[in-house]
Design brief:
- By secondary structure, the chain is an alpha/beta fold.
- The protein has 2 domains: 154 residues, Rossmann fold, CATH 3.40.50; 105 residues, 2-Layer Sandwich (Hypothetical Protein, Haloacid Dehalogenase-like Hydrolase, Chain: A, domain 2).
- It contains 11 helices and 14 strands.
- Strands 5-4-3-2-1-12-13-14 form an 8-stranded mixed β-sheet, with helices on both faces.
């Protein structure tokens, strides 16, 4: 099989456990691109939160990015949006109010801007990950409504791991059927519209580039990667992946500390292994 598109998650996949890119990974990615592979990073982060990584990879082509866990597909240079999904207004306001009532830190992404329910330590900790400075969401419903009027791409709750686990068990009963929710990290609970997923984003990229589902590879380690791993012609789990992800994958590569992404490129794209 000739594979033409590779989608990879960032944390626990593309980066090692210290959060670094290895020289082996950088080399393999660029050799794959030189051979004609469409390379896309698939992440919960916003576009701004990925640009530094692209520069470290040394990529100069206008590559597509799957951001906000599939709610936006955008080209990183031209900023052309290929696909975007936003939460329904009533769903967004409900999730915001629910989070505030529970006393959790609420982060709201709208128009590629980051709003926080409180400008707390958690807000700034999250800002250091996303690469975007948070703005205050507001106290009054009127202010919140104004700040989200352009549509909400994603909402994130940030709390202690055991608290997030409790929310995971309970929050579904408060939400409409139009909302997808999952953890991207043990301390992050994310909400997007049901039309958004990493799998849907890959489908849209296939339409855009004329690439078949069978010609795609997806690599990840977490539950938020499951949809794209199940969708791709070749779904790959990292050796360090969640067991559920491993059980659904077609292939298990080396861990993120052993250049697992580079191994996939060398084996399935370059054919050097």
């Amino acid at each position: 099989m000739s594979y033409k598109l590779l989608a990879v998650d960032i944390d626990g996949t593309l980066l090692d456990s210290k959060g670094n890119l290895t020289e082996e990974t950088i080399k393999a990615v660029n050799l794959g691109i030189e051979k004609g592979m469409i390379f896309t990073i698939s992440t919960g982060r916003p576009p701004q939160g990925v640009e530094g990584l692209i520069k470290k990879l040394g990529i100069t082509k206008d590559m597509p990015l799957i951001t906000y866990n599939g709610a936006m597909v955008i080209k990183w240079k031209s900023k052309e949006i290929l696909f975007q999904s936003t939460l329904k207004h009533e769903d967004a306001t409900n999730i915001i109010e629910l989070g505030k009532r529970f006393g959790t830190a609420v982060m709201v992404w709208t128009d590629n801007k980051l709003y926080a329910s409180e400008l707390s330590k958690k807000a700034y900790d999250y800002s250091s990950i996303s690469g975007v400075t948070p703005l205050f969401l507001g106290d009054s419903r009127e202010t919140i409504e104004k700040n989200i009027e352009k549509g909400v791409t994603k909402i994130l709750w940030y709390d202690e791991v055991e608290v997030i686990n409790e929310y995971l068990k309970e929050v579904g009963k408060y939400l409409s059927d139009d909302v997808n929710f999952h953890t991207s990290q043990p301390y992050f609970l994310e909400f997007v519209d049901k039309s958004a997923s990493k799998a849907k984003a890959m489908e849209k990229l296939g339409e855009y580039y004329g690439i078949k589902q069978s010609e795609m590879i997806a690599v990840g380690d977490g539950l938020n990667d499951l949809s794209m791993i199940e969708y791709a012609g070749l779904g790959v789990a990292m050796e360090n992946a969640n067991d559920i992800v491993k059980n659904k994958a077609n292939f298990i590569t080396l861990s993120n500390d052993n250049n697992g992404v580079a191994y996939v490129i060398n084996k399935f794209i370059l054919g050097t292994i």
